[in-house]
Amino acid sequence: MTRTTRLNRRRRLAAVTAGTAGLALLVGACGSSGSDDGDGGGNTAGDVTADLDCAAYEDYGDLDGKTVTVYTSIVDTELEQQIESYRPFEECTGATVEAEGSKEFEAQLPVRIQSGNVPDIAYVPQPGFLKSLVADYPDAVKPVGDLASEYVDANFTEAWRDYGTVDGTLYGTPLGANVKSFVWYSPSAFADAGYEVPETYEDLVALSDQIVADNEGDPDIKPWCAGIGSGDATGWPATDWLEDVLLRTAGPDVYDQWVNHDIPFNDPQVAEALGTVGEILKNPDYVNGGLGDVSSIATTEFTEGGYPIVDQLCYMHRQASFYQANWTTLDPDLSVAEDGDVFAFYFPAPEAEEQKPVLGGGEFVVPFADRPEVQAFQAYLTSPEWSNAKATATPQGWISANKGLDKSLLQSPIDQLSVDLLTDDSYVFRFDGSDQMPGAVGAGSFWSEMTEWIASDKSDEDVLDAIEASWPAS
Amino acid sequence: MDWLLNADSIAEKLGVMVVAILLFVVVMGLILFLVDRPRNIPNWVVAVAFSGPAILLIGFGLLYPGLKTIRDSFYNRTSDVFVGLDNYATAFTRDEFQIVLRNTAIWVILVPIAATLLGLIYAIVVDRSRFEKVAKTLIFLPMAISMVGASIIWKFMYEYKPASRPQIGFLNQILVWIGLEPQKFLLDAPMNTFWLIVVMIWIQAGFAMTILAAAIRAIPEDIVEAARLDGVSGVRMFRYITVPSIRPALVVVLTTIAIGTLKVFDIVRTMTGGRFETSVVANEFYTQALRQGDNGLGAALAVILFVLVVPIIVYNVRQLRKSEEIR
């Protein structure tokens, strides 16, 4: 009797231990995977419905009791800020907006279209994806309504309209934007070492050499740090590098031809640009401060690629404006400002280049229904009212190319600088090239080949030839 | 009845749950009642009543998608133009897919053998030992963790930092302690595939151990006794008595793990995203069909996977039949 009881108890104990340990591991795993979404730092969001004047909303009509469903890749805090920015529309028109975010957006949207479970509106982050949606599901995607189309003409530049246009028809209207031509650095570290923010590409290279010379005694400290890891999208930060440099070495016109495949992907001018990128990213003297050698770029998560700047193990990190959220994730006390702990400078152009190119990205609002409330909501999203409501609801990390956006509502210095670059006429804007290319290239071989280029030192020529070979025939 | 379709509050959701459970009870009760009551209904009615729902569900959830996948594999990326064997030609000739097929072969050969071997040795070693319960619990634990969870744990185990920086990966810390250079486990091909395989073995060895330990326990005591009287012990006991006696269990374990390994997706996707030459067929199928919108190529890869699994299942079923005949 006693023997069995003891045995049972021991068995139960073992089971409980096993269960708890397993549970703890699972909880731990979940916790760590969800933690890289910063909540936007110390700044606070404003009230979007303060002093709400419904006069600007009269064009949308009375939409009481109507519902618009939105599907997007935006999740967590950013999605909450999105939903917050819809409140003026909801209060003035009576409509309800139901937004749903998924990190599997790109994979799930075609599945939802095929199964007939289509959202009214989807936020598509890549013009290339929009093109393939229109080509693959011509009946599902609806042209943009007249009012929203008018608003696009009034509030955005021609170029932004073109990114949402497929074969002459407007299918997507611009939503948010981001600027990718930034180099993150530490103003305080630069001041301590007596470095100046470089004005030209030549200065940038000279500064890199100087940092190498100044830190000869310490092999850990390098001028640059980088990371291109991003799950199954690994490689995209490297494609941004090539696009940014191609814009500088060959100019925006060649860039457009390259994106549209009017010149082959492995054109000599592209090869030259890739060589220039290689002089930084594949130069063992320049990378990868605090993270390892050249190949460590491939396994470092892009979210962590700039972190060695804080430890002064590297001095520069080229990454988009949205990287500011990662600094506050690393340490909520870091100040992102021109005189703070970290800030970004414009990725400079060569001295000989007259135009200063800016690489950027953004999302597009694509309708899958043409009901009045859907068209009205899309028009609202292209209006200055929405841009300003969104700016009010977002403490940091959001901008738009909307000309009506009131810059003073932006609370983060990097967002203000981004808007300056987008609206200043001396800068030429170009949309992220990989986002415009067909999915097989832009979300496939371009990513994977650039990863190979770094991870296994594949040659420039082989990389470009392989991507050219993967370009879809039709 | 609107709340039934659009349950919002907790009370409504609980209500929906109660309704669902009641429906289940009613339907099951009805089936059991109908089957039980009359004694003289024809056999085929009973057969249909029992297997009908299952056949319907298999037809709708397995057969139809299966046939559609086979059809799609002969069509273009949007499944509307017939392209013949083009997708298969792509899958078998492009360099990157050859690496994918090679990796899948490595996985399906190594994982079942290693996991079964480890499980078998472990089962014998801990059998009837003092720590049996704890030891078995320990190796069975990984089975309780999801594949993604296990992958994240092992990603941290393999984490690389340069030699001069503090290590956060366990394995590299050990390498540094014994004076070696830290390794980029997940980056350096082709070894990185083997490091991923370790994760699968870690998960599956517990499964193998559990089944095999039960089989070893079931070996009749008299056979072991007789062998012992004949002077057999140690390795020869293992070779001539234990292994032949648990052969059916071994086959089941090997084939089950092999099928699971062919379908492996979570580990590769979580740990490397299929980069650095580590992709396998299931991951590539997902990438092509869902990320790049190429239904045809995705379907072709799925069919290849299916064709690879079939012989294993056939072998498994035949072995089962054989052992039933003996009985």
From TrEMBL, chain A:
Keywords: Signal, Transport
Protein origin, superkingdom: Bacteria
UniProt xrefs under PROSITE patterns: PROKAR_LIPOPROTEIN
Gene3D superfamilies: Periplasmic binding protein-like II
Signal peptide: 1-29
Pfam families for the chain: SBP_bac_8
Record carries keyword Transport: yes
Transport among keywords: yes
InterPro entries in UniProt: Bact_solute-bd_prot1, SBP
Family named by the database record: Belongs to the bacterial solute-binding protein 1 family.
Protein name in the entry: Alpha-glucoside ABC transporter substrate-binding protein
